[in-house]
Design a protein that fits this description.
heterodimer; A: about 350 residues; alpha+beta; 2 domains; five-stranded antiparallel beta sheet; 14 strands; elongated; B: about 210 residues; mainly alpha; two-stranded antiparallel ribbon; 9 helices; 2 strands
Chain lengths: ~350, ~210
């Protein structure tokens, strides 16, 4: 008699079912009543960390943003916070919110990075349920403070022994190596994702910061962004609104690290007028500066420039490499050529091609 | 289901010392070991357990005549889980930092044997008043046990009591006391002390 059995089951389970429905309704009510407050608490916990993770930042001057990343075919949203200076425009740094698997379960962290996303300025573990007394010590000040000032251009690893201050690695927590390395992996991955996402906008911010140095007296309002494919070139105007230069940015690996430059051509994109350094960490950079290598590009025709060996006298469209800094010299030359080519193409697009005809 | 058994007063008093959940029944060991590194966490846990225990006992007692014997454990678990979720959400709302500090141990109250034990032993058999008194007594007993362990661990391990410095600055904090081995050591020693006191009292009453 299957039907009778079913009826019996229901008759026996009615109390359980009634309780389940009642508790479900009660919990829904609790959720509705408290969830806003809980979310505010979570938000406050995040915002309270901003002054600690970004030196000099104020939690009231923050812009939240998000970007998507592809993780194993799934689109995952990452949140970040941009700390603003008192002027409300200049960026002081970023705080990234990210998560990843630890030894026991998911670890959620906040990572402070400087405005160029080159160094870590702070780390805070928002949530974790690692082994109490062992992995849970990833929240301690002793552990998280090890990340401060580490470079983001190289991966950070958790080593079992104490690391010298100049090392980019950290010391793992004893008996919690997996939790420690998990935090390192989350930081490495998050910063890389953010660097990739922000590359374009960071370049813009840096360019707007450096172009007035290249052209004294020019304000930010006199610099106009012109999209050029996936990148941007900048039109620089004088006080009367006339174009005085076109500027583009470029970067390339030098001998030791990435070299980033801004290159300017004149209004007709015929002559290189300035080469400006945005960032570099080359060991023999002083030799490059002393040799006047960057200035050797100025005044050259905005066409292909060839680098020659240090002992060879350069011709009109040639520049002489710097002794003991040949690789750096080559990187600079290639960046200049790439940017000039892009600038000419962009000016041609903007001006219908007339302005960039070869003289 | 009969309502015979100890009175409300007896149930209350038994929970404090004679049937103390930690020192006598050895129940609720997970939070006893895990959250007694400091008084604040221990007392918050005791409060959360008290809320769940009292609510679960009262509700179970109210529906005790409707309980089917083979479904009773399911009903207890369902009831306890509901109140634990409420406690967890209220903590996250009102004491967010503490909620973060306690982490998974608040949700783990669901499997705290003290609560299901009281539902089974008392609430499912006795009246609401007796069940509430029993829950109150057991809650206070549990809080006293947690407080005794947490006090020893926090004072020796951190030199503080409820976060306030009580030991001299020169006191070398006994790091082991705030770590898991410290919990086991303290529990073991206090358990031994409780047994010794019990044995001495029994001996004296026997002699009389």
């Amino acid at each position: 008699m299957p039907d009778t059995k079913k009826v019996n089951y229901l008759a026996e389970a009615w109390l359980v079912l009634t309780l389940a429905v009642s508790f479900g309704a009660a919990l829904a009510g609790v959720h509705l009543a408290l969830n806003d407050g809980i979310q505010t608490n979570k938000r406050n916990e995040t915002y309270d960390q901003i002054p600690r993770l970004i030196p000099g930042a104020n939690k009231d001057r923050v812009e939240a943003g998000a970007f998507s990343v592809d993780v194993g075919g799934a689109v995952v949203e990452r949140t970040f916070y941009r700390a603003l200076a008192p002027d409300g425009k200049t960026t002081m740094g970023y705080m990234l919110r990210s998560s990843g698997m630890g030894y026991v379960d998911k670890i959620e962290v906040l990572i402070g990075v400087d405005v160029k996303v080159k160094n870590i300025t702070g780390l805070y573990v928002l949530a974790q349920i690692e082994t109490p007394g062992l992995g849970s010590r990833i929240r301690t000040k002793d552990f998280v403070s090890q990340f401060i000032a580490k470079s983001t251009t190289r991966a950070i690893f958790a080593m079992k022994t104490a690391q010298p201050p100049e090392s980019n690695d950290i010391q793992a927590i004893t008996s919690a190596t997996i939790s420690s390395q998990s935090v390192c992996s989350i930081v490495n991955r998050s910063v890389r994702e953010f660097r990739e996402y922000l590359d374009a906008s960071i370049q813009r911010e840096l360019a707007l910061e450096h172009i007035p140095e290249m052209f004294p007296g020019v304000s930010r309002e006199q610099i106009i962004d012109i999209p050029s494919g996936k990148q941007v070139v900048y039109k620089v105007l004088d006080a009367d609104g006339r174009v005085i230069a076109w500027v583009g940015d470029g970067k390339r690996m030098g001998r030791w690290d990435r070299v980033e430059l801004l290159v300017a051509v004149d209004a007709d994109a015929q002559t290189i007028t300035k080469v400006h350094v945005v960032d570099q960490r080359e060991r023999y950079w002083k030799k490059v500066v002393k040799a006047g290598y960057l200035d050797s590009f100025v005044g050259k025709h905005a066409g292909k420039i060839v680098m020659v060996k240090p002992k060879i006298e350069p011709a009109e469209q040639q520049v002489q490499a710097v002794t003991k800094a040949t690789i750096t010299s080559m990187a600079i030359c290639r960046i200049v050529n790439e940017v000039v080519r892009r600038l000419k193409r962009s000016v041609a697009d903007v001006q219908g091609g007339a302005a960039v005809k070869e003289r | 289901m009969a309502s015979d058994g100890p009175t409300a007063g007896e149930r209350f008093l038994r929970g404090l010392i004679p049937e103390n959940p930690v020192y006598r029944q050895l129940l609720g060991m997970c939070p006893t070991l895990a959250v007694t590194g400091g008084m604040k966490t221990a007392m918050t846990m005791a409060g959360a357990v008290a809320f769940v225990l009292i609510c679960a006992n009262v509700l179970t007692s109210l529906i005790r005549n409707l309980l089917k014997p083979h479904l009773r454990i399911l009903v207890f678990t369902l009831t306890i889980a509901a109140f634990v979720t409420i406690a967890d959400r209220v903590l996250a709302y009102a004491m967010y930092d503490m909620s973060q500090e306690l982490g998974p141990y608040i949700p783990l109250i669901i499997v705290n044997c003290v609560i299901i034990c009281r539902c089974e032993v008392c609430a499912s058999k006795q009246s609401v008043v007796v069940a509430a008194s029993d829950a109150a007594g057991q809650s206070i007993g549990f809080a006293m046990a947690l407080a005794s362990i947490a006090a020893v661990r926090e004072i020796l391990g951190s030199g503080t009591f409820f976060g306030l410095r009580v030991m001299p600055e020169a006191w070398p904090n006994w790091g082991i006391m705030v770590m898991p081995p410290g919990a086991f050591l303290t529990l073991g020693l206090l358990l031994g002390l409780a047994n010794w006191i019990g044995a001495v009292r029994e001996k004296r009453s026997g002699a009389v």
